Amino acid sequence: MNPRVKEVNTTQNFMLQLVFTNDEKKQFDVKPYFNFGLFSELSDYAIFKTAKVEYGTYFTIN
What we know:
It is built from 1 helix and 5 strands.
């Protein structure tokens, strides 16, 4: 089974720090996606920093 995201933290430079169920840690740069549809809303840091893991799926950013 593929590891799932179990924890997500945001940084001030719009990076997601992800921890997976196998305890692997990765960073994901969201900035390149700001020009694509709904992702543009994430350029507002107040919205971006609300990232959270939603169990039953991967994760969502509200």
